[in-house]
Specification:
The protein is of the alpha+beta class. The protein contains eleven helices and 13 strands. A hairpin with a 2-residue loop joins strand 12 and strand 13. It starts with a helix and ends in a 16-residue tail after the last strand. The protein binds adenosine-5'-diphosphate and magnesium ion (MG). The site of adenosine-5'-diphosphate has 13 residues, from strand 4 and strand 5.
């Protein structure tokens, strides 16, 4: 069934929100929102494009899920609590089945994080989804990429490289076993580390999320902080799922250079690293993978020897350096 713009908005994107801070949501010319005093407003926007950020043919529910997940990851990296989103949807056709699935995936993760959809735009065009996400952080302290100091310990949450391995399986349409399903899920439905970001707010000296690849993103954190890093490659948590489908060196390529993980990298002073607060530990596994150095750039070391990775990471206007 083909639907008009008004029907699409009314049927799929207008819901009563559980949030009491939405004075006026979807349906008028703009949303009116209650701003909590004493906190800073945090804003992020991310666009995902069919064929660029997700393969053609990706399930609509996964696209909806991912569109918000990648934004939640940005707010997590600031130590912020997400509250409201706006959705700009460019669709080639108004297919009711697709829209229903898309909305289900989107609201599944929105509800998990108590985010209300308060507005958006709906147009005909290539499949492009833009989510703008707003949230709050306490006015006294928030996380940024700048602030890492030489001697700080560099951590990464979760297990990087699994999303890139999952994407490879999606692209090759292969793998029917549980590890393959796990890897695909890691690409299609990344877990934004919002609780970890909140816990790190008063603990980390710097933080950012890993979207383009570990080495590339550690270099960005280092550039923003005016320092360098030494990354000890053998400390990276191994992915048993990736190892069942890919050779060890390929797994390492994915961990160092594959993007799309949406894990957090963060730095803490050495004394804190030995004794991470319970709130940080409760928010999931993080692993110390290196140290911040004076100087610049990221130096990789493997079992004490200098190590040169085969690829660096993703740059939309550069070239994808294939591992
Ligand atoms: P206008 O023409 O004034 O910009 P629209 O007709 O585009 O208004 O949108 C009407 C209402 O529906 C607005 O509140 C807008 O924020 C909301 N809206 C439009 N598209 C979406 C969408 N995809 N998701 C959520 N809200 C939407
Ligand atoms: Mg208007």
């Amino acid at each position: 069934m083909s639907l008009g713009e008004f029907d699409i908005i009314a049927r799929y994107f207008t819901r009563r929100s559980a949030r009491s801070d939405v004075a006026l949501g979807v349906g008028d010319d703009a949303a009116i929102l209650d701003v909590a005093p004493g906190r800073k407003l945090v804003a992020a926007v991310d666009t995902i494009v069919e064929g660029v950020h997700f393969p053609v043919g990706t399930a609509a529910a996964d696209i909806g899920y991912r569109a918000l997940a990648v934004n939640l990851s940005d707010l997590a990296a600031m130590g912020a609590e997400p509250t409201w989103m706006l959705l700009s949807l460019s669709l080639p056709t108004a297919d009711s089945r697709w829209l229903e699935d898309f909305a289900r995936g989107l609201f599944e993760i929105a509800d998990t994080h108590n985010v209300a959809l308060v507005g958006g735009d709906t147009v005909r065009g290539p499949l492009v989804i833009t989510v703008s996400l707003l949230g709050f952080v306490e006015a006294d302290r928030w996380l940024t990429r700048a602030g890492a100091q030489p001697g700080d310990v560099l951590f990464v949450s979760g297990c990087v490289g699994e999303a890139a391995a999952g994407l490879a399986l999606v692209q090759q349409s292969c793998g029917t076993d549980a590890p393959a399903a796990h890897l695909r899920e890691r690409f299609l439905r990344p877990t934004p580390r919002v609780a970890l970001g909140r816990a790190l707010r008063t603990v980390a000296s710097a933080a950012m999320d890993v979207s383009d690849g570990l080495i590339v993103d550690v270099s960005k954190l280092c550039a923003a902080s005016g320092c360098g890093a030494r990354l000890e490659v053998e400390r990276l948590p191994p992915s048993l799922a990736a190892q069942t489908h890919f050779a060890p060196e390929r797994c390492l390529d994915y961990a160092l250079s594959g993007g799309d993980d949406y894990e957090l990298i963060f730095t803490v002073p050495e004394a804190t690293a030995m004794n991470l607060p319970a709130s940080v530990l409760a928010a999931g596994v993080s692993t110390a993978i290196g140290i911040i150095t004076a100087g610049s750039g990221v130096e990789c070391v493997r079992n004490g020897q200098r190590f040169v990775p085969r690829a660096s990471g993703y740059d939309h206007f550069g070239r994808k350096v294939a591992p």
